[in-house]
Structure formats: C-alpha cells, structure tokens
Amino acid sequence: MLLLAAIPARAQVPSRLFPEEADVYTTTAGLSRLALPPEVVVAAAPDLSDVRLFDRAGRAVPYAVDPGVPQGRERKARVVVDARVSDLQREEIPRDDAKPVTREFYRILLPEDAPAGGAWTLVGDAPRPRWVRRIAVRGVAADGTTPALVPRASLVRLGQPLVDRDRVVLPPFDGAEIELVIEGEEGFFLEPVLRFASERRLGPDASAEVPLRVLAQRSGQGRTVIDVARPPALVSSRLRIGTATPTFDRRVTVEDVRPDGTARPPGTGRIARAALPAGAGAAARSAVDVAPARGEHLRLAIDDGDSPPLDAVTVALAYDVPALLFALPAGTSESPSGVLRFGGGRAYALHYDVAALLRDAATASAGVADASQLPQARLGPLRRNPAFDAGPALAAVLRPGGKVEIDAWQWQRPVAIPDSPEGLVELHLGPEDLARALASRAERRIVDGSGRQWP
User: Fold this and answer.
1) Is residue 198 a contact partner of residue 110, using CB atoms and an 8 Å limit?
2) Last residue of some domain: 320, 352, 370?
3) One domain for residues 239 and 350
4) What pLDDT is attached to residue 44?
5) In b/e form, how buried is each residue of 417-442, taking b as 16+ CB within 10 angstroms?
6) Are residues 433 and 368 in the same domain?
C-alpha cells in the first residue's frame, strides 16, 4: 500500500483544522468541567479527536474527557485506608473437651480524613480459608467513656458468597479511636488485616437526546418498519420512541444497518403506554436499550399485530453527555477564558497527561469524577471558525520533487488519482506489481504527468 500526494496547497496551523468554534467561560481558576452540548457532539468525531481547547493567547490547553456513565450503571467514589493499631492484646480461654476460646483486643485509630460516604466500614481479611468470629466495636470518646457502636456482629468466611461476611458498617462517631473485640471457638487467633473503607455514589451524569431523522417508514403484514439516520458521532445506547397513540403495547426490534447493506440486531425491547383517567397520569415505557451501533442508519421494526400502526412516531437517541475537564485562567461572565474549536474529522486523538486524573483513584475520589464537585464552565453561542481552511492539512509536505528519468524503469502502470480534500490517496499494489519490484521497495516511484516524483 502506498499513500500518494495528489496536489500542493497552502500550509496550515492546528486552529485552521476545525470549522466550528465557541467561546468558553469560566469564573474560577483551577479545574473546571464543560459538558458538551448536542451540537458539538454531533459535529465532532465519535472519539472527540477533532476537539481542541485554546486559551486567549491561542495556545492549546490539555484536557481530560469524561465520557459519562453508561445507561444502567453508576459511578462511585471509594476510599480505603489501612487501619493503624495502637494497642493489641490476646487471650486464650481453655475449655474441657473443646478447643480453647480465643479473644483479640484491638485499639484502632480512626482515619483523620472524613469518610467519603458519611460513615466508615471496618473490613477484615485473614489468610486462613475458613473461619467464624463474633465481634463487638466500642468507641473511645474524649472523656474516656466507651459507648457501644456495634454491640454484636460476626465475620464469616466459609467459601459461600451468600454467607461470607468480611465487614461491618460503623455508625458516625466523633472520637479518635475505637476498640474491636474478636472472639472465636476454633482454637486459633484470626490476626486479621484491618482496613477502613467508605464509598458514595457520585452525582448523576447528564444525559441528552437527539431527534433522529426518519429516512423511510412503511407498514404492512402486522408490523411497521422505520429507518432513521444515526449521527456518526454518537454511539447509540438507548432509543426513545414517541407516538401520539394514547394506549399501546408493542415489541420493537432494532437493527444496525451497515454500509454494505447487512444488518445486525443490537437490541430489542417493549414500548407501552396506558392512558389512565384524567388526573391519574399515565404509565409509559418508551425506551429501548441497544448495543453500540456503527452503521449509517438504524432500522426499527414495531410489531403491530392486528392493531393499527402507531400515530406520529418519533425516534430520539439518548446518550450520556461527555464533558471536558481542564484548567483555564478565570474570566468573567462577559469575557471568555478560551475558545473551543471542533469538527471536520481532520485531527487525530491527543494523549494529554491530565487524562490520567479520571483513572487515578485518589484524584477521582477527591471530586474529579464527580460532576457536582467541579465548577461548571459555560459554552457561548456556536459560530463558524473564521480561520478555518478547508485545504489539505498536510499542505506543507504535499509538493512534488524533481523530475525523474522515466526511461530508467522497465515497468510502469497508470494510476487514476481521485479528488481528495486532504491531498492524499491510498493505492494498493497488486501481486503483479510486487512480483516485478525489489523487496526493499527502493525502486518504486510515483510520477505525475510532468515527470515529477511525489512523496
């Protein structure tokens, strides 16, 4: 395969690659979050590779992409802290005709930081494969009293998921320490590794819907088939079907129609609505969950049976709104901090270091992954980028070299070069080309009608 340069053109700078832009407003310094509206998501590439952020001086600003949480899932912040034991005592109580009772007394310092979810959970782990223990937890108050926090509980490991229990939730307590008593009748000390854990559900991610354009609709033989266009930038996860019909219950099959005409069923579901008396509302189910689709359009088949087709059907694609996380100098409500440029599909995905913030447990738990914890940036009205240049992005290198002596080559083959907005075309060499050329490819040349060679 060879990449051929077809035409020369003017040189370009990165800001000229993107046809659309909008001002970005932030009022606080430090990390901010910008939820991308549907107009940006639809115009951009599916992986947001053609999205760039610039400050007021025109310099590129690194950002992390938060893709949102898939339908049916949730995001949690989790903190785990190793327990610090300040005192430990053990005793063994002999028994006649039975293994001795073991007791372990632990005095443990509570973590200095507040728990993520309002309360700590004490987690115990031990290397032995099977054990059963009774435990009790008391707090150590500032005045020396020891109120009961967990009067009685158990820790169990029997290799049965429905029975095993390795943690106990502690109620809120203002003291700095707790006392843990572990008692067993199996004749050995448990010697657990103790940790504190806490988690909370992060704020819900925003979701949005984009109406899908109906390409064709036909009804017959007990079903209605609707073809809708799928925005290339959006990976479908849920379709929402609307209709003016007040009461219905239908089965829906969704197909992902590929460019070659083949179809793959990414999902099925049921839509229903029961129109209740005035004031009682209505029970409705209008969404169909589907697997990611990559085709040019989606095909919906609604089973009507003997019922008439649904009236005024509309289809919308629901998706999780992606967001950019970045740091720009603080501006004002009237003065933008930067500009977002996007679209065109001519840029490659960048790998900024700040993208690791969403993968790091410490920073994610500190609020980076929580949409409600970060200042929200605002996007101004969308407009055309006046610096946009539709010429080839690699114009600086798309220039012919010197002339070559065509008579020096034994074989030649004409090549038709189609129009290419980027000035590049792809040529696949056939077996006859490869058989007549050196394995090193050193003797191959691409020559235009004037005898000039091209890179």
Assistant:
1) no
2) 320
3) no
4) 87
5) eeeeebbebeeeeeeeeeeeeeeeee
6) no
> Same domain, yes or no, for 229 and 327?
no
Within its chain, how far is the Cα of 305 from the centroid?
39
Query: Are residue 23 and residue 7 in the same domain, yes or no?
Result: no
pLDDT along the chain (455 residues), means of 10: 40 74 91 89 85 92 79 69 95 92 96 85 94 96 93 94 93 93 95 91 69 92 91 71 92 87 84 75 76 81 94 87 88 88 86 74 52 82 90 71 76 76 72 69 75 79
Q: So what's the pLDDT on residue 236?
A: 58
241/276 same-domain check: yes
User: Of 167, 201, 235, which residue sits at a domain end?
Assistant: 201
- Which CATH number is 249's domain given? 2.60.120.260
pLDDT at 89: 96
| DSSP string for residues in 26-77 | -SSSSEEEEEPPHHHHHHS-TT-TTEEEEETTS-B---EEE----TT---EE
Q: What is the DSSP string of 275-315?
A: EPSTTS-EEEE-EEE-----SSEEEEEEE-TTSPPPSS-EE
Task: Say how far apart CA 49 and CA 148 lie, in whole Å.
Answer: 56
CA-CA distance, 370 to 378, in Å (whole number)?
17
pLDDT at 4: 45
Total domains in the chain come to 4
Adjacent-strand bridge partners of 338: 24, 55
Domain identity same for 38 and 140: no
Q: What six digits make up the tokens of 322? A: 């992606």
Task: Let me know whether 298 and 216 are in one domain.
Answer: yes
The two structure tokens encoding residue 79: 């903190």
- Residue 138 lies in domain: 79-201
CA 85 remoteness from chain centre? 39
Q: What is the pLDDT of residue 18?
A: 92
